[in-house]
Design goal:
The protein is about 60% helix and about 5% strand. The protein has about 300 residues and is mainly alpha-helical. It folds into two domains: about 1-85, Orthogonal Bundle (DNA polymerase, domain 1), CATH 1.10.150; about 115-290, hpI Integrase, Chain A (Orthogonal Bundle), CATH 1.10.443.
């Protein structure tokens, strides 16, 4: 069974081009499932019946697994059995009648426009680190890109003539996102005045560098965001993804259509983007209560 799993993961990497993070998550989920199957005394995946799948899901649910994680487990299992059918390693799938776990929609945390303005102003100064931090925060808010996408930007990712960013997203999918004047100016200032000082004698195409001239890490950026949110005196928890959530909700509040926001976020399915409409509706109700005479 382990051999079949390794073949499947190689198939996902080579044939499907899945991102490394996705592959690692699927690998963990499927190895956990195979161990469960082994403990039930089964040695062949074709012996797995729907009852075993249900028993497995009940077990992981009792261990505190969230609905989203359970759905990811199911997606991994469905893909695995689809591959087994294709390779004639199984005659049928035991997941045909297994429903997705109910996912309760949890509204993402966002910052107000005023709170965002405050945190963006925190780096201040003209030191190389301050110019870099300002540019990174401004780019994150202006484009809504993920932190992994931010730290992997290169000098050629930005089209300086037209002010667009080329981003390599999940699954190796490329998308184009406008930067906006403020983020453009801050990033240009960083590249002109600070980047070469951080790079030192090293040579690299990576856009944002740490004090050693190496690529800025996701962990390093996470710590930076927490530090500046505390410095800004914000009471709510702020993390890098808060910028992405705020980017989307502020665009929708301003009148942007959902499809455009979907494209800029790089969501494959518009249903993923629709969660932000809940925030917009709440904001509209708040404005109505505040300003309407019968609110």
């Amino acid at each position: 069974m382990r051999h079949l799993l390794e073949k499947y993961l190689n198939y996902l990497l080579i044939e499907r081009g899945l991102a490394q993070n996705t592959l690692e998550a699927y690998g963990r989920d499927l190895r956990r499932f195979l161990e469960f199957v082994r403990q039930r005394g089964l040695t062949n995946l074709s012996e797995v019946k729907p009852e075993i799948i249900t028993e497995y899901l009940i077990k992981v649910k009792s261990e505190g697994m969230s609905a989203n994680s359970m759905n990811r487990q199911l997606a991994a299992l469905r893909g695995f059995y689809k591959y087994l059918l294709m390779e004639k390693e199984a005659e049928q799938t035991p997941l045909a009648n297994i429903e997705l776990a109910k996912v309760w929609m949890r509204l993402p945390d966002t910052l107000s426009r005023e709170e965002m303005k405050i945190i963006l102003a925190q780096p201040g100064g003209q030191s190389p680190a301050a110019l870099r931090d300002t540019a990174m925060l401004e780019i994150l808010y202006a484009t809504g890109i993920r932190v992994s996408e931010l730290v992997n930007l290169t000098m050629s990712s930005i089209n300086w003539q037209v002010g667009f960013l080329t981003v390599m997203g999940k699954g190796g999918k490329e998308r184009i996102v406008p930067i906006g004047k403020t983020a453009y100016d801050c990033t240009k200032l960083y590249t002109d005045k600070a980047r070469s000082q951080l790079m030192g004698r090293k040579k690299t195409e990576i856009l944002f560098l740490n004090r050693f001239g190496n690529k800025f890490t996701r962990q390093g950026f996470w710590k930076m965001v927490i530090r500046y949110s505390q410095k800004a005196g914000l009471k709510k928890k702020v993390h890098p993804h808060t910028f992405r959530h705020s980017f989307a909700s502020h665009l929708l509040e301003g009148g942007a259509d959902l499809r455009t926001v979907q494209v800029m976020l790089g969501h494959a399915d518009i249903s993923t983007t629709q969660i932000y409409t809940h925030i917009t509706r709440d904001r509209l109700k708040e404005i109505h209560r505040k300003y309407h005479p019968r609110g």
